[in-house]
């Protein structure tokens, strides 16, 4: 469903590996673990279609994409029990519709403030990434 092979979300491979790990395909999106885990459980929900803006989706696609984002958030609440999830949809430099779902925990890093896009504070081992991914996958 993706069309731009220069896009990390479409092409996957090394471009995606630079910042994320694909967890699973959802009906209208790809669920991706963000490698920088200063907010435990942070994921990206990237639309399967290469569009720049949610308004470029049909009504049905938009509804399904919103359902995917909501389902991902439900899973994050269930697995990680954050106090709040921040939803970020920017795309200034990555022209592909995607939402960052950023679990926030009271009293911890950036509580009460906007999350940093990529602070490079917490990278995990492959085993730790695998454990996070598995804890999400079993709920899909």
Describe the structure in brief:
This protein has 140 residues and is an alpha+beta fold. The protein is built from four helices and five strands, in the order ααβββαββα.
Strand order of the largest sheet: 1-2-3-5-4
Oligomer: single chain
Number of domains: 1
Shape: globular
| First-last Cα distance | 21 Å
Unreliable spans: none
CATH class: Alpha Beta
Alpha-beta classification: alpha+beta
The gyration radius over C-alpha positions equals: 14 Å
CATH homologous superfamily caption: HIT-like
Total strand count, please?
5
Task: Please tell me about this protein's structure.
It is a single chain. The chain is α+β, with helices and mostly antiparallel strands and 140 residues long. The protein has one domain (8-110, 118-134): HIT family, subunit A, CATH 3.30.428.10. The protein has four helices and five strands, in the order ααβββαββα. It has helices spanning 8-11, 13-17, 59-80, 126-137; strands spanning 20-25, 29-34, 43-47, 84-88, 98-104. Strands 1-2-3-5-4 form a five-stranded antiparallel beta sheet, covered by helices on one side. The longest helix has 22 residues, at 59-80. The two termini are 21 Å apart. The model has no long low-confidence stretch (mean pLDDT 94).
């Amino acid at each position: 469903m993706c069309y731009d092979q220069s896009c990390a979300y479409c092409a996957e491979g090394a471009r995606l590996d630079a910042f994320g790990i694909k967890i699973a395909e959802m009906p209208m999106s790809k669920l991706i673990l963000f490698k920088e885990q200063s907010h435990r459980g942070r994921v990206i929900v990237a639309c399967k279609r290469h569009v720049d803006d949610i308004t470029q989706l049909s009504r049905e696609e938009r509804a399904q994409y919103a359902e995917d984002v909501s389902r991902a958030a439900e899973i994050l609440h269930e697995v990680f029990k954050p106090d709040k999830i921040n939803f970020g949809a920017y795309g200034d430099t990555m022209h592909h519709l995607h939402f960052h779902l950023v679990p926030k925990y009271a009293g911890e890093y950036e509580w009460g403030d906007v999350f940093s896009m990529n602070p490079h504070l917490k990278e995990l081992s492959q085993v730790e990434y695998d454990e996070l991914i598995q804890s999400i996958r079993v709920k899909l």
